[in-house]
């Protein structure tokens, strides 16, 4: 003998009604709040996982963007400007080797400096040759591309359009593939990558907002769970069962087996009147952005149907 109790955000749980009303209501209250807590925890894990995935994708795109940046040109080492020291004529005459005298041997430091100077000059020469070669190759490629383009234009100009088929010739000309240079390709890929990064940042911002709202909902739920409250069940039509008044009776005498009921709590209004409130969760912090779009569309359709029937629009969750 079971009934289904609806609560939270589209949640339901089965309860055995082969018992008294009082312990049944306590079991329903405890069980439903625990289920809502578990549900919010799962959504929190889901949102954290999605944010982590978005951030990882963003990092990969940032690395791709760095690879697309043109490499910095190798700068030739700057030559140190050495100030020429004025030589003392007496010292120069003294240092000059006399006829028949062997020149003084160079020190190890002097030899090392000469070797470094020689290597530096060789590196500069190699760099200069490399740049010349690159410049030459680039000019040759540009010249070849220009000639190919000119030949294509000349062929198209020489080829007469068939009578009555001018539109077809123009269509074929439009369908000709555009030659994409390396610079154009890099610019295109950079623009696409930047657009993807911006989209991921928006997703991270939206999901972070959801996560923040979810944390607030968890704190609110924990606070509500600890509060003393009067809970009851209602029919889907809104009719209240007033189970607290019959706490000693068996539940199956007041509730119908295999039927769905809605969990509510009874609060005091401004004028001490009883206010019936469904125990639900805010769907705004639970749904994904895509689910939000679907939900809003469903709400508009329901409101339109209610408006035609002259009824009350459904409560938004």
Automatic annotation (TrEMBL):
Domain of life: Eukaryota
Region (Disordered): 56-181, 290-317
Pfam families registered for this protein in UniProt: Il2rg
Entry keyword set: Coiled coil
Extent of Basic and acidic residues compositional bias: 56-104, 117-154, 167-181
Compositional bias per record (Acidic residues), positions renumbered to this chain: 291-300
Coiled-coil region(s): 190-217
InterPro entries for this protein: CXorf65-like
PANTHER family in alphabetical order: PB1 DOMAIN-CONTAINING PROTEIN (PTHR33887:SF5)
Protein name: Uncharacterized protein
Source species: Stylonychia lemnae
Protein encoded by which gene: Contig19104.g924
């Amino acid at each position: 003998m079971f009934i289904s109790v609806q609560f939270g955000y589209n949640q339901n749980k089965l309860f055995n009604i082969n018992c008294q009303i009082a312990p049944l209501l306590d079991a329903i209250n405890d069980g439903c709040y625990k289920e809502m807590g578990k549900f919010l925890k799962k959504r929190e894990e889901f949102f954290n996982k999605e944010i982590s995935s978005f951030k990882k994708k963003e990092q990969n795109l940032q690395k791709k963007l760095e690879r697309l940046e043109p490499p910095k040109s190798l700068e030739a080492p700057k030559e140190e400007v050495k100030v020429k020291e004025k030589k003392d004529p007496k010292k120069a005459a003294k240092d000059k080797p006399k006829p028949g005298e062997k020149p003084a041997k160079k020190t190890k430091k002097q030899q090392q400096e000469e070797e470094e100077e020689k290597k530096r000059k060789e590196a500069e020469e190699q760099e200069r040759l490399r740049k010349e070669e690159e410049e030459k190759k680039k000019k040759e490629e540009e010249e070849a591309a220009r000639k190919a383009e000119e030949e294509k234009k000349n062929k198209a100009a020489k080829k007469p359009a068939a009578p009555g088929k001018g539109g077809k010739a123009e269509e074929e000309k439009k369908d000709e593939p555009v030659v994409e240079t390396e610079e154009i390709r890099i610019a295109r890929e950079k623009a696409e990558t930047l657009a993807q990064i911006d989209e991921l940042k928006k997703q991270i911002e939206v999901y972070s907002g959801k996560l923040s709202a979810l944390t607030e909902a968890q704190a609110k739920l924990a606070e509500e769970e600890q509060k003393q409250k009067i809970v009851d069940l209602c029919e889907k039509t809104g009719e209240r069962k007033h189970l607290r008044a019959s706490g000693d009776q068996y539940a199956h005498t007041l509730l119908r087996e295999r039927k769905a009921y809605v969990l509510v709590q009874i609060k005091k209004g401004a004028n001490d009147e009883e206010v019936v409130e469904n125990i639900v969760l805010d769907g705004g912090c639970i749904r994904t952005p895509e689910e939000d779009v679907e939900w809003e569309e469903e709400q508009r359709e329901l409101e339109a149907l209610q408006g035609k029937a002259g009824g009350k629009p459904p409560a938004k969750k």
